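An example makes the point: we let one protein speak, the chain in one-letter code, the fold tokenised, and here it is:
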Amino acid sequence: MVRDAEIDRPLSQEEYDPKGTLALLFVYFLILAFMWTYMYFVEFLGNGPTVVG
């Protein structure tokens, strides 16, 4: 593998901006919030107490 010395340079703390990681965490949070809302309002709120297992 050949590396180009002009392209390969270290990033400073100010240049590093992890927008993809933040977006992925936000998507995971939205999925978890939707799942919790569905389980609470659809599965448990309309039914009486149940024992699973």
